[in-house]
Amino acid sequence: MDAKDILGLPKTPLSITQEKKSRPQKDSQRKPDGISREVYALTGGLAPLMPAIETSQLKKRLPSDEKITWQWLPFTSSARKDNLQLYHWVRVVNGVPPTGDYSFAKYNKSVDIIKYTDEEYEKHLTDPSWTKEETDQLFELCERFDLRFIVIADRFPSSRTVEELKDRYYSVYRAILIARGPSTGDVSANPLVKEPYNISQEIERKRALSMVLSQTKQQERKDAEVLAEAKRIADSRMAARSELAVTSNAVPEGTEREISGDTISPSNVQLLSTVVPDNASTLASLRMLRVYLRTYALEQMVQAASASAGLRTIKRVEQTLQELGVNLKPRVPTKAVCAEHLELRKEILTLLNLQKQLQYKEAEGSSVREGSYSETPGTPKRSHRVGDQDRTFIPDSTGFGGERVGKRDQKRKAPGRLAEAPSSPAQSKRPRKLKASDL
Where are the annotated coiled coils located (predicted)? Predict the structure, then answer.
C-alpha cells in the first residue's frame, strides 16, 4: 500500500511527461597558477579589489636564531635626582638586556632660572614692597614648578596675587640681565628687556575678561548691536569724507560755469543737486579701480546720470541721439569727447523731463477750461435745487390682487375717482383670527 492507495488515486502513469530542462553548460575556465583552489572558487576568477602587495614591502621577519624574551628588570631615570630605582618589563634579545638611559627621560624639560648674589641684590634688586627672603622663596618656587605661577601663588607663604609674583620675577630678571650685560645695546633684543611686564595692563585685561565671561546672552546681543552700529557710522563717515573730497576735485567745467554766472535758474540748481552726487560716487568707485578703460567709465557715468529715469525715458534719449546723428558710443572716446557726450545726454534728459511737465500742465489747463464751460450761470446745480430737498417719498399705489397701477392711469383718472376707489389694506395689519363665539 502506498500513498495513492490511501488517497484513492489511480495508479496510471502521468499522461504528460515532464521533460528535463537542459541546463546551459558552463564554460570551463582553467585555474591560473599560483592561486589555490579555495581562493579561486571564492573569487570566481575575478580581479581582486585590493591591489597586490609585493613581498618586498612586507615586514621582514627576524632571523630564526634570535631568541626574544620579556623580563622584569630595574631601571633609573636621569630626569630624577634622587636615583630612584623602579621596575618595568623589558624586551631582551638573546639574554642581553638593553643598556642606556630611560627612554622617556628626554621629555623632561626644565626652565633655566637665573641666580643672583647678595651683592647684586643689594645693588640692583632692592624693593621696598619685597624682602630678600620673599624674593628667594619666589625664585625657589619658580625653579621647582617651572614658572607655573598659579601653583606658585598657591604655595607662596604670604598673600600675593599672581600679577604681583609675575611682576617681581620679571623685574628682577630684567635688572640682572641689564646689570650683567656689557652694554645696554647687547641685551636690548631680549624680550624681557624689549617688552617689560606691565602689571596694570594685566590686571585690566583680566578684569575685562571676567566681565565678558560673566555676561548674559541678552547683554552679548546688545553689545553686538552697538558694535555693528558703530561700524556702520564709521563707514558712513568715511564714505562721506571721500565723496566730499572727490566732489571738490571732480565738479564738471560746465557746472562751474553755471555756478560762477550772474544768474542761476531753479532748474540748474535742481540739476546740480542730482548730477553732482551721482558723478562723485561714480568717480569714487572708479578711483578704487585705479586702472580702467575710458569707455567703461563713460558707461558708468551714463548709468549714474540716468538712474532716476525709467526704461522708456532712456529709450527716448537714445532715439533722440539717433535722430541727431550721434552715435550711442563715441568712436573716439577721448576725454573731451566723453565729457561732451555725457553733457549732451544730460541735456536731452532735462529736455524730456521739461516736455513731460509741459504736457502735464496743458492737461490741467484743459480740464479746468472744460469745467468752467459746463457750469453756465443759467443752469443751477443739482445740489441747489429746492424741489429735490423738499420732495417727499410717495410709494406707488397698487391695485387689487397686488397689481401695480401705471403712471399713465394715474394721470388719466380724475382726483374724485381716486378718492372713491377703495384703499388697499395696510400691509402692517394682520387679519383677525376667528374665535369660537363667532361660529
Answer: none
Which amino acid is present at 411?
K
The DSSP line for 38-69 is: HHHHHHTTPPPSSPPPPGGGSPPPPPTT--EE
Residue 327 makes CB contacts below 8 A (sequence gap 6+) with 321
- Residue whose C-alpha cell is 607663604: 157
φ/ψ of 96, rounded to 5, equals -105, 110
Task: Estimate to the nearest angstrom the gap between the alpha carbon of 62 and the chain centroid.
Answer: 61
Measured distance CA(267)–CA(358) in Å, rounded: 14
Query: With a threshold of 0.70, does the pTM exceed it?
Result: no
Secondary structure (3-state) at 325: coil
- What class has domain 118-210? mainly alpha
Instruction: Name the helix (H) or strand (E) containing 92.
Output: strand 86-93
Contact 153, 165 (CB under 8 A): yes
Q: Which three cell numbers stand for residue 201?
A: 595692563
Q: How far apart are CA 251 and CA 247, in angstroms?
A: 6
CB-based contacts of 249, cutoff 8 Å, min separation 6: none
Q: Which amino acid is at 332?
A: V
Q: Which three cell numbers stand for residue 289?
A: 579701480
Q: How far apart are CA 84 and CA 76, in angstroms?
A: 6
The dihedral built from the CA positions of residue 149, 154, 155 and 158, taken in this order, carries a sign that is: positive
Q: What's the CA gap between 55 and 66, in Å, rounded?
A: 22
The Cα–Cα gap between 382 and 375 comes to 11
The Cα 158–Cα 155 span in angstroms is 9
- For the chain, residues with pLDDT lower than 50 are 16-17, 250-277, 379-411, 413-422, 424-428
How, if at all, do strands 86-93 and 68-75 pair?
Answer: antiparallel
- Nearest C-alpha neighbor of 342 from the set 309, 304, 316, 368: 304
- Percentage of residues in the chain having pLDDT higher than 90: 21
3-state helix, strand, coil in the chain (%, to 5): 55, 5, 40
**What is the reported pLDDT for 55?**
64
- 266 near 246, Cβ under 8 Å? no
Cell digits for 139? 625664585
351 forms beta bridges with none
Q: Grid coordinates representing 102? A: 630611560
Contacts 24+ apart (CB under 8 A), 248-251: 250/279, 250/280, 250/283, 251/276
